[in-house]
Design a protein that fits this description.
six-stranded antiparallel β-sheet; alpha+beta; Immunoglobulin-like; 9 strands; three-stranded antiparallel β-sheet
Length: 211
């Protein structure tokens, strides 16, 4: 008899909208409260509800563009996510690899199939939010025979780039962290590769909103 596969919850929140974090968190909090399958949750569910309600209120307040409120909202988002990840690990261990039990938690099971993500452009593989407000990470796509790369970015101005900031990139195996960016601002990114003694053309622009 083959061993049942471990059921893992979806806990990737980097590219999830604030509204989705609220929806997922509310679903988990509602389903786990009083759930006999999970009698000893490691995070207090009442505290989780309060954290979600606070986060939801900050989302609405942040619409006026206040940097202080946006930073507070982002901190509260991380607090909610940490609680959900803690609960997710508990559900994973406690459900006994029984999908029926797992689904009573309100978590969504992660797919066991291996998937590949298409790059965002011919030279930019992935752009993601960093661990802190005002930080973005960029992972470039390897180009055959390239000895190094350059990444440039700028604040989007009506769909067109204004003043570019250019950074050298020596390797593509690890993401490049950009710090000190402005939250709630859309940036555009381009990359190019150095092959022999000449640079390739800049890649198509990829836009991303900093949080």
């Amino acid at each position: 008899m083959s061993k049942p596969k471990t059921i893992k919850p979806i806990d990737g929140f980097s590219n999830v909208s604030d509204a989705d974090v609220v929806a997922r968190g509310t679903n988990v909090q509602t389903n786990m409260t009083g759930n006999a399958n999970f009698p000893n949750p490691p995070a207090d569910l009442t505290a989780l509800k309060t954290a979600i309600d606070t986060f939801s209120a900050l989302i609405a307040q942040a619409l006026d563009g206040s940097k202080k409120i946006i930073a507070e909202k982002n901190r509260q988002r991380e607090a909610v996510i940490k609680m959900l990840r803690l609960l997710g690990r508990y559900v994973e261990v406690t459900c006994k690899d029984d999908m029926a039990i797992f689904q009573t938690s309100g978590f969504q099971p992660a797919s066991t199939a291996k998937t590949t993500t298409d790059p965002l452009s011919e030279k930019i593989r992935k752009i993601d939010h960093g661990a802190n407000s005002g930080q973005i990470t960029v992972r470039l796509k390897a180009v055959a025979k390239a000895s190094s790369y350059e990444l440039r970015y700028a604040v989007a101005d009506g769909g067109a780039a204004t003043t570019w900031t250019t950074m050298p990139v020596s390797a593509v195996k690890t993401p490049l962290a950009l710090n000190g960016l402005t939250p709630a601002t859309t940036y555009v990114f381009q990359a190019r590769a150095l092959i022999k003694d000449a640079y390739t053309d800049w890649s198509d622009s990829v836009s991303f909103i900093c949080t």
